[in-house]
Every structure is written in C-alpha cells, then in structure tokens.
Amino acid sequence: MKYFRNVMAAILLAAAPGFMYSQIKPLDAMLSDYQYPFEVHFLDLKSQDNNLKMAYMDVKPQKSNGKTIMLLHGKNFNGAYWERTAKDLSAKGFRVIIPDQIGFGKSSKPHSYQFSFSQLAENTKSILDELKIENAIVLGHSMGGMVATRFTLLYPERVQKLILENPIGLEDYKTFAGYQNIDQAYQSELKNTAETYKNYQLKFYYDNKWKEEYQPWLDLIAGWTLHKDYPQVAWDAALTTDMIYNQPVCYEFKNIKIPTLLIIGTRDRTAIGKDRAPKELQPKMGQYQELGKKTQHEITESQLVELENVGHLPHIEVYSKFFEALYNFIK
C-alpha cells in the first residue's frame, strides 16, 4: 500500500505542470476579463501623440491616518499583486494608490512610444495630480524600483519616504551584457510560454521551489501568450527591456536625499541580459546580498533590511517579514 501511494504521488507530481498550464486562460492586452482586487480607474493621457489610458486603483481607508502610499509594480507584474499589501496598509489608515504603468496590466499598450523612466515617472505624477495628492510614500518593486528612483529624483517634493523592494537596476547591466536591439528583444519575447516564464521565476525568484501562492502571478503573464493580442504586449515588453538596459539609475542613488528603506531578499539573482553576458561575468550579476549593502552606502538617509534566503518577491514569498519591515519604516 505504501509503495502504491508513493507511485501515485509521483504520477500526480509529474502530471501537475501540464495540468497547471492547461488551466491558464488567454488574456487580451488590456486584461479585460481579469478582475483586479479593487475598483479600477482610468486616467486619460495625451502622451507622445498617443491617446492613452492609464489604469490605477485607489484604496481608501475606513479611518485615515493622513498618509498616502503609492505602490509601483515590476516588469513581469501589474498592480494586482499588491492586493494583500494594500489591504493591510488600508487597515492601518493609509490611502493606497496602485498604478499600472503604460505598457503594463490594464493600461494602454502603445506601439509607437519612447519608453523612459522619466516618462513613466511623469505619467505616475499625473495620477497624483489628478487625485490632488501633494505627496506620498513611494514603494517600488523590481522595475518599479527604477521608476520610483527616477520619480524621487525628478519630484523630491512629492515623496515623503522611498522604499525599494528588490529593485532591479542596482548595477549597470551594460557593463556586463552585450546590446540586444529591440527587434531581437521582441523576437525573444514572442517565444515566451507558461513554461519559460515559470522556469525563469523558479530560477531567479523562488529557488526552484514552487508554491500555490505564486501561481496567480504566472497565470497573468502566461495568459497573454495564449491570446492573439500577445504581439502587442510583447512589443511593449521589448521596449521596456531596452529602457532598463539603456537607462541605469545606479549612478544617481547618491543624489537621493529622501529617507529610504531597502528591503532586499538576499537570494535574488535577477539581472537583465545575464544570458548575453560572458560566462565568466554571469555569476557576478544580480548579487543582491552585495548590491543591497552597496546601494545603502550610496543613499545617505537609508536603512537596509536584508531577508536571508529570500528571492525576488519578498511581498509574495515571505509576506509577514516584508510587511513588518515596511510598516516599521512608515508608521
């Protein structure tokens, strides 16, 4: 009987990935059939001769503490993955603003658009302007950390405190990896599948350990690959990859004068272009246990919370530790 149970367990385990992928639903470019955890609003933007819609959520607390926090998502994500964070912050009295950047989530996916961190920062400021919010605490994860950094450098008067959660861009990827033009990046994006996305996340985010709570964030980007709109999504993904590679922020951390918290999962090894770097340089990229300390040294008024043996998504992988660090800094 014990042997039979072991065999059945092995069969189910082997079958699980295929079953998982079969449950992923096609999603159009605007995620029209995907319901976000809070009401979605749209800001009309006229930008670079494009008429765009920028999606955002505005989560108001029952009892306000007078503070607003803005949560900025990463490249392979959208605002929906902040659900638990937003609920807990709202319960503590914070108003929570969660944008989807242009090119991501439920926001417009323009074909002719010069993506820059300055442009994304300006778009983000437009939401605060629309809502008549003078300043806010700004939290950026992954690529959102680069947006948050540029936002803080451009509009320091609008930022009360800055939190960077495993941000990419703590190093200059151009110094490691060769250039990939946008057409090449686009062809690479077109090859993505649920399996390639999962393998990437296992390698860089979760240390080859998959948990059920990771699945929704795979489903969202994998669902795009199954829809006829995917070339539109992939094109913007290629443009933003080029932006990350060509617009480093690491040289300007020294110019940040806002109180800053770095929340760093030290197991993270995320680095743009690592596959294109020489073999001898690849192990030197994305060393977050070193990059966190280096960045804290660069930012004068900064604190560093290192989360040992945690990967790229602390607010998903070890939520309680993440939230404790965040709340202690902003309360």
UniProtKB/TrEMBL annotation:
Q: Which GO terms describe its cellular component?
A: membrane
Q: One GO biological process from the UniProt record?
A: acylglycerol catabolic process
Q: Does the keyword Coiled coil apply?
A: no
Annotated SUPFAM superfamilies: alpha/beta-Hydrolases
Which region is the signal sequence? 1-22
Q: Its domain of life?
A: Bacteria
Species per Swiss-Prot/TrEMBL record: Chryseobacterium joostei
Q: Which UniProt keywords apply?
A: Hydrolase, Signal
- Name of the protein in its database record: Alpha/beta hydrolase
